[in-house]
Write a structure and sequence with these properties.
single chain, 392 residues, 8-stranded parallel β-sheet, 10% strand, binds ligand FNR
């Protein structure tokens, strides 16, 4: 069968390959999925405005993120239990990011350990932290990330408790799982996925103590009870000191929070609604971006995730002042559809589309993207030009 040509094609291939409950866990959002849809629709509503007779014979996709050179402004977002897409998915995703010359961010809830992912490929990688009620456990994770040589600590701040993902509730993809005849029959229809999982080391939350000794369900229960809803700005300094490297906040949508993050010495913010999986009804990430870029005013880097499915979406986010974007589901669909090589396939599709989009837009370098590339430059924040100069 021909390789999928687009991220949408990878998603369809993943739908065929995965049991329904697993596909929905990856694909779904919270409640009515309004925010999930807005992440896409708001990208589509930003028309591009190409220039002509510009020499675009050579296009330059390179930029820097937190001072590290990357070959393209696209990073891999942290996703829990990536091993559900394909066994050891995190290792393959990190290798794919390294092969393309960019950064992989590992989730606290990964199915591979920090140490295994650190050893899987050269180059920069980040660790995403969920602060736990057990502060000792949190400290331990931060120290392990530091010892493993992670280049940045990404604190996710939009998950004080898990969003209500109704597809998971309906499918019985819950803790504990609700087994039904329908689920069992569906598993049988997806025998290749089941066989892959059975042949592989047992799926686990590899970053929790005694992860290998406890069942994944038992640990999921423990983790769900561990998300710390009492975390505040006052806790940032301790985390930052414990890690001793760049701190990134993930999950901001409000410009006042971005301003506050800068005041607390945060090095970068990720404008994100967790891929529409948390607060349904929250605005899209791309709609929130301009005000946040304006509020930050070049004092920290601004990244974005949520709904990036085409190279043109990367262009739109950069035109509105993002330094780079991250993708979650595209990599998971790639892994599910094609196995270990699928992450690289997904990233390559997006890289080639970005390159193609720059050529047709008449912009030879990603660093030259600005609001004039958009049909309505008023979509950009007023201080964007100043911010850009400060970022270079
Ligand atoms: C996520 N995301 C996420 N974020 C995080 O900080 N820690 C995590 O463990 C996870 N886990 C996770 C699992 C799955 C299956 C998905 C789809 C997403 C959110 C992720 O980092 C990112 O914000 C979104 O995925 C971005 O949206 P797109 O690219 O998936 O549309």
């Amino acid at each position: 069968m021909a390789e999928p040509l687009s991220i949408a094609g990878l998603r369809e291939a993943a739908r065929r390959r995965l049991p329904r409950a697993v596909f929905d866990f990856i694909d779904g959002g919270a409640q009515d999925e309004c925010t999930l849809r807005a992440n896409r629709a708001d990208f589509d509503a930003l028309p591009l405005r190409p220039r002509v007779l510009v020499d675009v014979g050579v296009r330059d996709l390179r930029t820097t993120v937190l001072g590290r050179a990357v070959a393209l402004p696209l990073l891999v977002a942290p996703t829990g239990l990536t091993g559900l897409a394909t066994p050891q998915g995190e290792l393959h995703a990190r290798r794919a990011a390294a092969a393309l010359g960019t950064i992989y961010c590992l989730s606290t809830n990964a199915s591979c350990s920090i140490e295994a992912v650190a050893a899987a490929a050269p180059g920069p990688f980040w660790f995403q932290l969920y602060a736990m009620r057990d502060r000792g456990l949190t400290r331990d994770l931060v120290q392990r990330a530091r010892a493993a040589g992670c280049d940045a600590l990404v604190l996710t701040v939009d998950l004080v408790q898990q969003g209500r993902r109704e597809r998971d509730l309906r499918n019985g993809f819950t803790v504990p799982p609700r087994l039904s005849l329908r689920n069992a029959l569906d598993m049988l229809r997806h025998g290749r996925w089941v066989l892959d999982q059975l042949r592989a080391p047992r799926l686990e939350f590899a970053n929790y103590p005694s992860g290998a000794d406890r069942g994944v369900v038992e640990l999921a229960q423990l983790i769900a009870a561990q998300f710390d809803a009492t975390l505040t700005w006052d806790d940032l300094a301790a985390l930052r000191d414990a890690f001793g490297g760049p701190l990134v906040l993930k999950g901001l949508l409000h410009p006042d929070d971005a301003r506050r993050a800068v005041e607390h010495g945060v090095d970068a913010v990720i404008v994100s609604n967790h891929g529409g999986r948390q607060l349904d009804g929250a605005c899209s990430a791309i709609a929130a971006l301009p005000a946040i870029v304006a509020a930050v005013g070049g004092r920290a880097e601004v990244l974005l995730d949520g709904g990036v499915r085409r190279g043109a979406d990367i262009v739109r986010a950069l035109a509105l002042g993002a330094r780079a974007v991250l993708v979650g589901r595209p990599v998971l669909w790639g892994l599910a559809a094609l196995g270990p090589r699928g992450a690289e396939h997904a990233l390559t599709i997006l890289r080639d589309e970005l390159d193609h989009c720059l050529a047709l837009l008449g912009v030879p370098a990603v660093r030259a993207l600005d609001a004039h590339c958009l049909h309505d430059p008023r979509a950009a924040p007023p201080v964007q030009a100043a911010a850009r100069v400060a970022q270079t």
